[in-house]
């Protein structure tokens, strides 16, 4: 059985992605790792080459900045990488997602366990979403709790919408025609994705947010909603929780280099009354009312 990792990146240094840590975190259990590298500045491609791993294969791409509906460019890039894997299973990490070393054996064991159960199309992992720095995590409804991160290498399984998750289609052409597709049948596995999407210094975070909005919104929306403050306001949030666990070892050096400080000011939260009520119900019962689930648990 062959295990393939796959991902995509563009301008990794410019926008502060821990893309090298992401790749290295999953590499030990992969037989190959395919990454679609968009036309980049600042040495992104060269840095991946300098990892000097024979497992890594780079696919050069050019991003279509005119593709500005619903983050489709990200699904496109994920699919380009997925189309080049040769393994029986594909392990997908986005460039700001990292696996803890303690979870590596769990991933391999789960794949081995379900390899011959053809009902199982994918594996579902839980998430820790870090915000502002490495000490706080988001726990409310704005964050997805689970998502598919391991799929069978079936070419009609495609990244869905903005590549947050995956669905199965009758053909690749059906996916390209924006057909709805079928939710994947999954098994939940006790593995955590460490998601560092909102961990950057405030100036870099503002730069990243303003640039990436263009892949979801048109120019009119950007003119009205672009962040004009000098720095990103990390306190514009509903609720955060102190993180008391350990980060993946591959992230330790990056964490030591943090040159900004964020302390959550609860008095500045933007928690609406409705969301407070729903969050309270969830904390008491564990039930997230109306939770979006792009998968079918079996």
Q: What is the N-to-C succession of helices and strands?
A: EHEHEHEEHEEEEEHEEHHEHHE
Q: How many separate helices?
A: 9
Distance between the termini: 23 Å
* Structural class determined from secondary elements: alpha/beta
Number of domains: 1
Major sheet details: 11 strands, mixed
CATH architecture: Alpha-Beta Complex
What's the CATH first level?
Alpha Beta
Helix proportion: 25-40%
Mean model confidence by pLDDT:
92
Low-confidence stretches: none
Count the E strands. 14
| Multimeric status of the protein | single chain
Morphology:
globular
β content, as a range? 25-35%
Q: According to CATH, what is the topology?
A: Spore Coat Polysaccharide Biosynthesis Protein SpsA, Chain A
Radius of gyration, in angstroms, nearest whole number? 19 Å
What does this protein structure show overall?
By secondary structure, this protein is α/β, with parallel strands linked by helices. It has a single domain (1-298), classed as Spore Coat Polysaccharide Biosynthesis Protein SpsA, Chain A, CATH 3.90.550. Helices cover 26% and strands 26% of the residues. It contains nine helices and 14 strands. It has helices at residues 19-26, 44-49, 72-82, 104-114, 172-176, 202-212, 219-225, 252-256, 273-285, and strands spanning 3-9, 32-38, 56-61, 89-92, 97-99, 122-131, 136-138, 146-152, 157-160, 165-168, 182-183, 185-198, 240-242, 296-297. The strands form two sheets. Strands 1, 2, 3, 4, 5, 6, 7, 8, 12, 13 and 14 form an eleven-stranded mixed beta sheet that branches. A three-stranded antiparallel beta sheet has the order 9-10-11. Strand 6 (122-131) and strand 7 (136-138) form a beta hairpin.
